[in-house]
Amino acid sequence: MEAALRDVIDAIWCWEGPGCKRAKWAPATDGHLLMPSGPPVPVDMSHLDSPPKPKLVEDWPKVKHSFGQVTAVAVDLQGNPVIFHRGSRIWTAESFNDSNHFQQIAEGPIPENTIATLAAADGAVVDERGAGIFYMPHGLTIDRNGNMWLTDVALHQVFKFMPGRDYPSITLGHRFEPGSSKSHLCKPTAVAIASTGEIFVADGYCNSRLLKYNAAGRLIRTIPQPPEFLSLQTPHGLALLEHLDMVCVADRENMRVVCPRAGLQTSYGEGTQAATIQEPDLGRVFDVAAYGDLVYAVNGPTSPMIPVRGFTIDPRSETIIDHWGKFENPHSITFCPNGSAMYVTEIGPNRVWKFTLTM
C-alpha cells in the first residue's frame, strides 16, 4: 500500500516533468504514511552525451479503437493519455469558406464523444465525454491542476474546463466569428499553460500570431509585436520551457521551430531575437513538446525527399540533435509529466502511439 501511494504522490510531486527526481521520503508523524521530505530536485541534463531516445511500445494499445481524426493528446494527473478527436466529422476543402467561416454549422455539433481517456497500461478507454459540444476539434492541453484546455477551429474559440465540469470556466474568442481583433481568434490551434497560470494561445491558421493572457483570461501580450521581428506562418503547436523562459512554436508552414521569450520571469528580453531551428530535413513541423530544456517535435508530409518522423531539438544551440520514429501523418506529441512516457497521435491513420524513453 505504501509503495503504491509513493508512486501516486511522486507523480504529482514531480509535475515539473523530466527535470525532476523522485522525492526523498521520510516517515510521517503518525508512523503510517510516508511523505516527501523536501522539494523536488531538478535533474542536470547538461552532462548527457545524447538525449533520451524514444522507443516504441509494441502492441500498444492492446485494444482496437475506432476514433475519428485524432488531433491532440495530453496526459492527465493520473498519468493516462487523453485524446481529442473529431468523431464522424472530417475537415475537408469545403469545411470553411474564403473568409474562414465554418460551412457546416447546420449539421450541429459532433454527436459522438470527442474526448477519450485511455489507460496508460493497455490503452483501453476508461472515460469518454464531449458529445454535442465541439464542431472541429484541434488542440488539447491539461495543466498541472488538471484543467483541460481545448481549441475548436470551427468555433474559433479556446475553452478551459475544470475537472469534473461540463461547462467551460473560461472561453476565449467569439462563437463562429473569425477575426483578428484583440477579442477574436481565427482557427486557434494550441494552448500552453505556465506554472504561473499565464495562458499562451497559438492563433493559428489565419492570424499566425501568439496571444498571451493572464490566468483570468485577460490579454497582456501579442507575439510578434513591433519592434519584434518574427514572422509566423501557421503556428500549429506550443511548448513552454519555463527554465529558459521560452515558448517554442511549431511554425508549420515556415518549416521551423522558433522560441521567442515567454516573459514569465521578467518582461526584459521580450521582443529580442527568437531562437530558431530550421534545417533542410525538418519539413513542416506539426507539434512540439518540452522535455527538460529540450524540445521533441514531429513533422508531417512535406515532400517525398523529407521523411516523416520525430526530432529532438536543443533550442540553446539551435540544432537538431537526434531523429527518431517513422510516421505517416502525425499531428500531436506530449510527455507524461514525470518523463516516463511519450505519446504521438496521427490523423490518417487515426491512432495513438506510445513511446518510452531510453538513454
Automatic annotation (TrEMBL):
Its EC number is 4.3.2.5. The keyword Hydrolase does not apply. Its cofactor is Zn(2+). InterPro entries: 6-blade_b-propeller_TolB-like (IPR011042), NHL_repeat (IPR001258), PHM/PAL (IPR000720). Zn(2+) binds at H138, H236, H331. It catalyses: a [peptide]-C-terminal (2S)-2-hydroxyglycine = a [peptide]-C-terminal amide + glyoxylate. Keywords: Calcium, Disulfide bond, Glycoprotein, Lyase, Metal-binding, Monooxygenase, Oxidoreductase, Repeat, Signal, Zinc. GO terms for biological process: peptide metabolic process. NHL repeats lie at residues 123-164, 177-216. A protein binds at R86, Y205, R252. Ca(2+) binds at V73, L140. One of its GO terms (cellular component) is membrane. Pfam families: NHL. GO terms for molecular function: metal ion binding; monooxygenase activity; peptidylamidoglycolate lyase activity. Binds one Zn(2+) ion per subunit. Disulfide bonds join C186-C206, C248-C259. Coiled coil: none annotated. SUPFAM superfamilies: Calcium-dependent phosphotriesterase. Peptidyl-alpha-hydroxylglycine alpha-amidating lyase that catalyzes an essential reaction in C-terminal alpha-amidation of peptides. Mediates the dismutation of the unstable peptidyl(2-hydroxyglycine) intermediate to glyoxylate and the corresponding desglycine peptide amide. C-terminal amidation of peptides such as neuropeptides is essential for full biological activity. Belongs to the peptidyl-alpha-hydroxyglycine alpha-amidating lyase family. This is peptidylamidoglycolate lyase.
